[in-house]
Design a protein that fits this description.
Elements: H1 3-17, H2 20-45, H3 50-75, H4 78-102, E1 110-115, H5 129-146, H6 151-156, E2 159-170, E3 179-189, E4 192-201, E5 207-219, E6 222-223, H7 227-232
Antiparallel strand pairs: 1-3, 2-5, 3-4, 4-5, 5-6
Helix pairs in contact: 1-2, 1-4, 2-3, 3-4
Length: 237
């Protein structure tokens, strides 16, 4: 069971016994904490894109609630007050740890989860470096689908987005059965769509791969601007 739930379950009887305005205030605020987390947990399981932004906002609510409650905890005397403060502090550190774990993947316009397959690993037991390019390319395809476009359909119309340049950094190696989070940001410089793509190991959010990948558009075989791509990416370029 999640430590948030365990902490709340152990603390609730003590909250029930507290009298006066302080007790009511603590119970109300801790209940807000509990409800917020209950609503947040499914989103945590499916982290990505807009969900990530939602998580950031809800975790901020956690922090604000704790900050407002802490002075009340300080004023409580006796064993009950000490117990509540100790348990709420545990809650706070669990929250801070969660924030630290999720922080690296909050600031992207698109994220998706994937799993390493055994045939993607080399004799050393780690993902072969070429497969990170496959992960990055598939992430771009999924992002394009989210924007309402299809690489295949664009090709049929004579518009091809092709890689012009890549700058790659390999950090922590992925291994067989590792789940990972592939993240993407985008900007435009002249004719180039510049994708900043990072891959994190899901178990601990260790950075595994960083890539700056430049794409350009060929329209009927000639280098050109694409109104379709510009329109699809208009929120970010």
């Amino acid at each position: 069971m999640n430590p948030f739930y365990v902490t709340f379950a152990r603390l609730e009887p003590t909250l029930e016994k507290l009298g006066g305005a302080s007790g009511m205030k603590i119970k109300a605020r801790f209940t807000t904490f509990y409800v917020t987390f209950a609503r947040l947990e499914p989103t945590l399981e499916k982290l990505g894109g807009a969900s990530g932004m939602k998580i950031k906002a809800r975790f901020t609510t956690f922090y604000v609630t704790f900050a407002r409650l802490e002075p009340t905890l300080e004023k409580l005397g006796g064993a009950s007050g000490m117990k509540i403060k100790a348990r709420f502090t545990t809650f706070y550190f669990a929250f801070r740890s969660a924030c630290t774990n999720f922080a690296p993947i909050m600031d992207y316009i698109f994220t998706t989860r994937m799993m390493v397959r055994d045939y993607e690993c080399d004799i050393e037991g780690i993902v072969n470096n070429a497969n990170y390019l496959h992960y990055a390319e598939h992430t771009r395809h999924l992002f394009l689908q989210q924007c309402g476009l299809s690489f295949a359909e664009m090709h049929r119309r004579g518009i091809d987005a092709v890689v012009a340049r890549m700058n790659l950094q390999y950090k922590t190696p992925l291994r067989c059965d590792d789940e990972f989070i592939s993240c993407l940001n985008l900007k435009k410089e002249g004719l180039r769509y510049v994708f900043q793509q990072d891959i994190y190991r899901a178990a601990d959010n260790k950075l595994c791969f960083k890539g700056t990948i430049d794409l350009v558009c060929l329209v009927n075989g000639r280098l050109a601007h694409s109104e379709d791509y510009d329109r699809a990416f208009s929120k970010w370029i």
